[in-house]
Structures are given as structure tokens and as C-alpha cells.
Amino acid sequence: LKDELSGKGARKRDEDRDETMIGGLLLISLGFTSPPSLLHGVSRTSSGRALSSVRMEDVGPLDTVKKGWGRFQESRSQGYGVKQAIADAIAGDYDVTAVQEEVQEEAKSSPLVLFTWEASPSCKKALELLEIAGADPKVIRLDQPWSEGNKKRAALGRLTGKSSVPSVWIGGKYVGGCDDGPSDSAPGLVKLAFMGKLKDLLEDAGALKARPALPQTEAVTSQ
User: Residue 69: which of 50, 45, 88 has the closest Cα?
Assistant: First the structure.
């Protein structure tokens, strides 16, 4: 019985720690700076407990944060993971179906579409790789403005199973991010390249830049 109670106590501490960290992430993501009293001692904690002084019950007056926490819990209750739930919380209230239809139309608006934001190292890496491959992507920035981009990010996450950027679409089909993806059918650009499939996908979709025509004299000589 003692061991059982001890195990339950440990699980409760883990749940409290997880709630604490998620609450802190929501505070930061929603643009709030917590009062010093809430963050007392944070700088002295280990990375795993960096937000151990921030509790959702301590930020009752912040109505926006409370609503975000409610959206987070609702998303989790629907079976979504923590990252998607955080994306939903940050997105705010929006028409999920309408925004999903909007991003699907945007994803089909060009042979190669990337949903990105400027400061993301993964987005920069993906664009560099596609430049090397000779591709001509259409870039849709989710940070112009964030108020709309956060909704699109959450909608993309629900559609694809991955809320991080870049969200890469070739020929209207989701293929993952830069280094990875949520499934074998959408493994990301790097894995597709190593599998020898990326160039064919880009070519079949018409996403490669047109090669400049050779001058007539060179064309004759080369035949």
C-alpha cells in the first residue's frame, strides 16, 4: 500500500509539473510577462523545472490566458497532442472548418507550397534545399500577420498531424516538414531526398524551374 501511494504521489507530481510547464508556455506564447512574484526562483531551477513557479491558478485575472488554457484542455480532450493543443490555444477562437478549407486551397494554389515564418531555421533550411534542387516554391508566411497565421498553423496541424513549420505541399499533397514528418507518406524533404523521391515529386508536380533555352548555335553543336 505504501508503494502504491508513493507511486500515485509521483504521478501527481509529474502531472502538476506538466501542467506548470504548459501553463508557462501558454503565458509566454500569448505574449504575457508574468509578475516577478510568479517567476521567483525560476532562474535557479534546472531546465526540466524552469517554469516550476508558474501555475495557472496564479494567473486568474488574465482572462486571455484562462481562455487559452480552456482551449488547450478542449484540444487535449479531443485526442490531440500537447504541441497541437498549444497551437490551438494560441490560435484563439476561429472557424476551424473555414480555415482548414482556406489552407487547403492555398496548398493547391501552386505546384510547390511552403507555409513558413521568417525566423524559423527549419524554414530557411528547407528553402535552401529546394533552391539546390532547382524548385520554385510559393511561400505563404504565417507571421504576416500572426493573428491570421496562428489560426492557419493550428488548422494545418489538425489536417496533417504536425503543427510545426515548414508545412510543405507538393502537387497539393502534404509531404511533411524539412527534416521529418508525421508519417511514412509524409516524411519530410530531407528523407524524401535520401529516398530518391524528391526530384521526381517536384518534376511530376511541375515545381522545377524552367531551364533556360540554349542559344541556337550551341543547341546545333550539342546534337
Answer: 88
Q: Classify strands 167-170 and 138-141 as parallel, antiparallel or unpaired.
A: unpaired
Interhelix angle 121-133/198-205, nearest 10 degrees: 70
Three-state DSSP class for residue 183: strand
Cα–Cα distance for residue pair 91/70, rounded to 1 Å? 12
Q: pLDDT tens, position by position, for the chain (223 residues)?
A: 555 545 555 555 555 455 555 555 555 555 543 333 333 333 333 344 343 344 444 444 467 778 888 999 999 999 999 999 999 999 999 999 999 999 999 999 999 999 999 999 999 999 999 999 999 999 999 999 999 999 999 999 999 999 999 999 999 999 999 999 999 999 999 999 999 999 999 999 999 998 766 666 554 455 5
**pTM for the model:** 0.73
